[in-house]
Specification:
Length: 315
């Protein structure tokens, strides 16, 4: 998908092909403040005054690596400001907000946050393309991906950043505890399950890079490439095929927070078709490399059938 104009605040101007990014530069002093993580400033005052840091109050683990938070949003004025408040408590090095065709107050709300780098796409490019753009612009060792319509507490987000900081390359949201029995699952859920089984990763269940929150290491991004994030299931398949550490690390109930729109409600809706198509593309990636890893041998298929039967029969 081609974007005629991307307006980026807080970064340098870049021109690539048909996409042009117009930049509003901040002063040098403002940029210096942006790159200094909030936890560093609070920590210095805390040492002098004996005041606990925000990270200590929230019982968040200190990170050794730098953190980039990437938020994709479309008309999220009701939730975006509150999400940015939670994200700030993580002490990120940078927050990149990619606005997809917003016609509400999402842009000024984002600009009010002094640490936010705002990428404004006049027309919607979709959450997945937005995440790829944010990943391309990011500098952190840890990349945390969020959607602007979900206000998730920092204490829960910290599970994903800490997991990557501890050596995991792809930290996924564990949605298994939220799923009904197999016969009641929708086609999207079954597609996620089948892909993980085709990869030989029965332990991942329905966990997927299609869902947020999830986090990547810089190593994972460099291995799979930021362009692959446009098709999340394919990026996940490549992560497993390249033997990166892919794990589910915590459960955040995004189902109840997911904002209902015309495109994602009803059987056979546009979002459902898109996600299923993405999984078909990911399966093609697996099939094309099945001889290398023996991922679809007879033993794997028997285990897949056994796992599906267990899922179907659970109470």
């Amino acid at each position: 998908m081609m974007v005629a104009l991307l307006q980026v605040s807080g970064s340098s101007a870049v021109r690539r092909g048909t996409a042009t990014r117009t930049v509003k530069k901040r002063s040098a002093s403002s940029q210096a403040k942006t790159t200094l993580a909030p936890r560093q400033r609070v920590s210095n005052r805390s040492v002098k005054r004996g005041i606990p840091t925000a990270r200590e109050v929230l019982n968040l683990p200190s990170l050794r690596g730098t953190l980039s938070v990437i938020i994709s949003a479309r008309n999220e004025e009701q939730t975006l400001g509150r999400l940015l408040q939670q994200v700030s408590r993580l002490g990120p090095t940078e927050i990149i907000v990619v606005l997809n065709g917003c016609s509400d107050s999402s842009f000024p709300i984002s600009r009010q946050h002094r640490q936010a780098i705002v990428v404004h796409c006049p027309e919607s490019v979709g959450h997945d393309v937005g995440r790829a753009i944010g990943a391309k612009l990011s500098r952190g060792d840890i990349l945390l991906f969020l959607d602007g319509d979900m206000v998730i507490p920092a204490s829960q987000l910290g599970l994903f950043t800490a997991a990557v900081d501890g050596g995991i390359d792809v930290a996924l949201n564990d949605l298994d505890p939220l799923m009904p029995s197999f016969e009641l699952c929708d086609d999207v859920t079954r597609s996620k399950l089948f892909l993980n089984y085709a990869l030989g990763r029965y332990d991942l269940g329905v966990s997927s890079m299609t869902a947020v929150p999830h986090a990547l290491s810089r190593r994972a991004l460099e291995t799979i490439g930021y362009r692959e994030l446009i098709v999340p299931p394919k990026a996940q398949a490549r992560s497993v095929l390249e033997k990166l550490r892919v794990e589910k690390v915590g459960t955040v109930n995004v189902i109840k927070h997911n904002r209902l729109r015309q495109a994602n409600i009803g059987a056979g809706n546009a979002v459902e078709k898109l996600i299923i198509g993405d999984h078909a593309e990911a399966l093609l990636e697996v099939l094309s490399r099945r001889d290398d890893g023996g991922l679809l041998n007879s033993e794997t298929q028997r285990e897949y059938r056994r796992q599906v039967a267990a899922w179907r029969n659970r109470i």
